[in-house]
Structures are given as C-alpha cells and as structure tokens.
Specification:
By secondary structure, the protein is α+β, with helices and mostly antiparallel strands. Helix content is 20%, strand content 36%. A hairpin with a 2-residue loop joins strand 5 and strand 6 (103-113). Helix 2 (40-52) runs antiparallel to helix 6. The chain is globular, with a radius of gyration of 19 Å.
C-alpha cells in the first residue's frame, strides 16, 4: 500500500494496479491528492488496465475509444466491469464500463492485436527545441507563483513522477498568440519503469488526457486556469502505433482544428526523441463561458 511519502513512480503504478473483485470485475481508487473530480486520464488508464487483464499477453492494445458520462468522485472507489466482446484470430475486442454508486461515469471500448509486420509510413515530428533547453516544472512554479491558482501551483511543486516541459509557455497560459491552434510539450516519467509494454501503454493513456483542451483555449487567448470557463473532456480516442517507453522523452504535438457549438476538437501526435511516431490522440471537449444559456 502506498502513502503520500511513497516514491512518485510507485504511487503512479499503484494507481494503475487495480484490485480484482470478481470475474472480469476490478476496482480502482483515486489518489488522496486528487482534485474535486476524477482526472479523465485516470479513468482512461484504469479502464484500459481492466480490459487488458482479460486479454492474452501477446496482444497489446492498438486503440481505445472512451466517453466521459459523469464527473467522478475521487473519494469513492470506481468499479470497472469488462465485457468480452470478441476473441478473433488476430484481434480481441473488450468493452469496459466504469461505475460509482450504480451510475456509469465512463465507458471504454478497446481493441488488441497480435504483433504483425506490414507497410510503414508516418508523419515527421515538428521542429522544436529539445527538452533540456526548456524550463523545468520547479522553475516554472517559481515564475508562476503570482499567476497560477493555489491548487495548480501545489501540484506543480509536489514531488511528481512526471517531468513536463512546455515549448510555448505563454500559449499554455493563454496570454499570447490568440488564433494559434498548436502547442508542443515534452514529457517523460522521471524514474526507470518496468519493461512491460502494457504498463507503458497504461501510463501513456493516463498522460494523454493532459493539456489537450488548453490547445483549443489558447487559440482564443484563454486557458484552463480561467475560472469563468466551464471545461470538460467529453470523449477520448487513442491509437498506439509503435512500441515506446514512457520513461524516455516523448514529444506531444497538439492542435485544435475546430471549435463550435460549445465544443472543441483537439488532436495529438506523439513522437520519440529520435522522431518515431508512436501514438495518436483525438478528443472533443466542452468549452463554454460559465453562466451561458444552454
């Protein structure tokens, strides 16, 4: 059992290590430092872990699609039930439902595939500064003390398993370049992780939800730290293209091709340091002014 004094990576891996409570049934918990709602990336990753545990070990996940139905309560355990939709010769399909108090808060469908060889092509990564040239999280927290909400600042200052570097910090804060619909972020897990590919996929699923909607807000000179806005993830899709390690630098190249009707579409492509494209992400989110007529 982990505590607040446990090493950060140990706490993260424990968060993704679900309790088996029955046949194809699992239970997850939120960290004691969670905010008022369950982090979307946590629900995605835990549902993927639950589904993965019902699939043969030689079939890694290649895609997942999820819907956020209700805001989750971090003080309440989350029960994950897996439905074995299909077991084919090459592909395995699973559906996972996450519930609290009998109500569905998140649903996920994931597909797993045997490892195969085939055609190869991919996009090239954008040209951006290397992560070593960018400000560390601790340096950012010092610079942003007078700007960030206390909760956000405390999370930045807390000993974390994640090292994240923003290529365009002003864009992330919504203070510059209105109309710009792209942002780039480097991140990695600081300490060495186990070699199991499924663990790296679960960690990437957890991290893939971060900062995406801010890409859409930055186009309007706003940020997720703006309390006059209502911002929430509505759905999330993730495709795994190639093996990777989450404890090595990954570039998260994000864009937002559209915002309309109180919603914004955001996308992300993930690259290794040597330019291999390892995953793609798409997410639609709610972005509206608080008090707006519905």
């Amino acid at each position: 059992m982990t505590t607040d004094s446990s090493p950060p990576l140990e706490r993260l891996l424990a968060l993704l290590d679900l309790e088996c409570v029955g046949e194809d049934a699992f239970r997850g918990h939120s960290p004691p430092t969670a905010g008022p709602m369950v982090f979307g990336g946590q629900a995605i990753a835990q549902a993927l872990v639950a589904a993965r545990r019902t699939v043969p070990a030689d079939r890694p996940a290649h895609s997942l699609h999820g819907y956020f139905v209700l805001a989750g309560d971090p003080k309440t355990p989350i029960d994950y039930t897996v439905e074995r939709v299909r077991d084919g010769k090459s592909f395995t399909t699973r559906r996972c439902t996450a519930k609290q108090g009998g109500s569905t808060i998140f649903s996920l469908e994931a597909s797993f595939q045997i490892v195969e060889q085939g055609f190869e092509h991919s996009f090239e990564p954008p040209e951006v500064p290397g992560p070593e040239t960018l400000a560390t999280t601790s340096a950012l927290s010092e610079r942003l003390k007078s700007f960030l909400p206390r909760g956000a600042l405390e999370r930045m200052e807390k000993n974390s398993a994640l090292d994240i570097r923003f290529v365009d910090l002003e864009g992330m804060l919504g203070g510059a370049h209105p109309g710009k619909t792209r942002q780039n972020i480097w991140f990695r897990i600081v300490d060495p992780m186990p070699g199991d590919d499924a663990v790296h996929q679960a960690v990437l699923a957890y991290l893939s939800d971060m900062t995406l909607l801010n890409t859409a807000l930055a186009a309007h000179g706003r940020s997720i730290f703006d309390h006059t806005l209502q911002v929430a993830s509505l759905d999330h899709a993730l495709w795994f293209h190639r093996p990777f390690r989450a404890d090595e630098w990954l570039l998260y190249a994000q864009d937002s091709p559209n915002a309309s009707g109180g919603r914004a579409l955001t996308r992300g492509q993930l690259f290794t340091r040597d330019g291999r494209m390892i995953a793609s992400v798409a997410q639609e989110g709610l972005i509206r002014q608080r008090g707006a007529k519905i």
